[in-house]
Amino acid sequence: MATTSSRTDALVERLFGATIESLELLSVYLGTELGLYRALAERGPLTSDQLAEAAGIAPRYAREWLEQQAVAGFVDVDDARRFSLDDAHVRVLASPEDMSHVAPFAHLLAGIGGVLPQLVEAYRSGDGVPYAEYGRAFRHGQGHINRPAFTHVLPTEWLAALPDLHERLRDGAACRIADVGCGQGWSTIGVARAFPSAEVTGLDLDDASIADARRHAVDAGVGDEVRFVAGDASALSRLGPFDLVMVLETLHDLARPVEFLAAARAALAPGGAVLVVDEKVADEFAAPGDETERMMYGWSVLHCLPTQLVEDDSAALGTVLRAADVRRLASEAGFSRADVLDVDDELFRLYRLDR
């Protein structure tokens, strides 16, 4: 058994390392928000003065940020003090549809940083913190961290796990699809791009996210092919029936998940199904947990649970929604089946819910 001293030292080292990594992650926020990575990817190698001119920032800040990025190993620097971003790091930092693009984590953390005083008060009072309070940074981070999967994996591997529906989509059938909790619309756009014959409707409670989604759809060339609606589950019955209701990274965030699932079930066309994609957490609580479990609990205590507790009588699920929980919610909502789909994904677990 480890001694008290060795456990103390281990935790000190861990928090010291976390501090360095947190600072570096927030420097990624600056690089993304100011277009610095994009300038390096498109125009590099650049001196600090050249980057300052290209990105429209002050030269002294450009030099310090570039030196910090080089010290961190994010950018390369030559003997002439020209800085560049190699192709491997372009994928991570400056290619928003690449499956390796994880730079949006920085925006998520920046958004959380902006509400920390409110979180302290919420923990004391038991109240929540509204999603809108996390601001544009969090909204951008949440939308863009899932954008690669929603662009590439959702229309292929995930929908292929629903073979009856996928076959109809590939054959050009006019399927009607609802994307509930669509956020900035990347999932709605991804499906509409892949299956032009489908009628895809994105719904979200957050007005700012719906505005983002409409703009993104126009930029993606599908502005006339998709519809975005600001509203809750009650809109499903008005807009349906649907052959597929997608609930992507959303079920755990709902204050009234059973009521929502019941509304989704009622809005299904004959033979329709609900696709739930949620976190791939462990089947049972165990401590200490693996990295996925640690990350999901981190989002839960800082974002998901506080946003859920805004509403009275919330189910307060938090982020860590286990498979047994999904099955229980589906059963309470009247579904006859809730099957875990055979999809190998590092972070997500997929469920099919049938009437």
- What's the arrangement of strands in the largest beta sheet? 5-4-3-6-7-9-8
Number of separate helices:
15
Tell me the helix content.
Answer: 40-55%
Please indicate the count of domains.
2
Give the helices and strands as they follow along the chain.
Answer: HHHHEEHHHHHEHEHEHEHEHHEE
CATH topology of the largest domain: Rossmann fold
Q: What would the principal axes of the Cα set say about the shape?
A: globular
CATH architecture of the largest domain: 3-Layer(aba) Sandwich
Rg estimate, integer Å: 22 Å
CATH class membership of the largest domain: Alpha Beta
Report the uncertain regions: none
Tell me how many strands there are. Answer: 9
Beta-strand fraction estimate: 5-15%
Mean pLDDT: 96
User: Could you tell me how far the N terminus lies from the C terminus, measured between alpha carbons in angstroms?
Assistant: 52 Å
Structural class: alpha/beta
CATH superfamily of the largest domain: Vaccinia Virus protein VP39
Largest sheet: 7 strands, mixed
In short:
With 355 residues, this protein is an alpha/beta fold. The protein is built from 15 helices and 9 strands.
Using brief descriptors, characterize the structure shown.
globular, 2 domains, 355 residues, two-stranded antiparallel ribbon, Rossmann fold
Sequence-ordered SSE layout with sheet pairings:
Elements: H1 4-33, H2 36-43, H3 48-55, H4 59-72, E1 76-77, E2 83-84, H5 87-93, H6 104-113, H7 116-125, H8 135-160, H9 163-170, E3 176-180, H10 186-194, E4 199-204, H11 207-219, E5 226-230, H12 234-239, E6 242-248, H13 257-266, E7 268-279, H14 291-308, H15 323-332, E8 337-340, E9 348-354
Helix pairs in contact: 1-6, 3-4, 6-8, 8-10
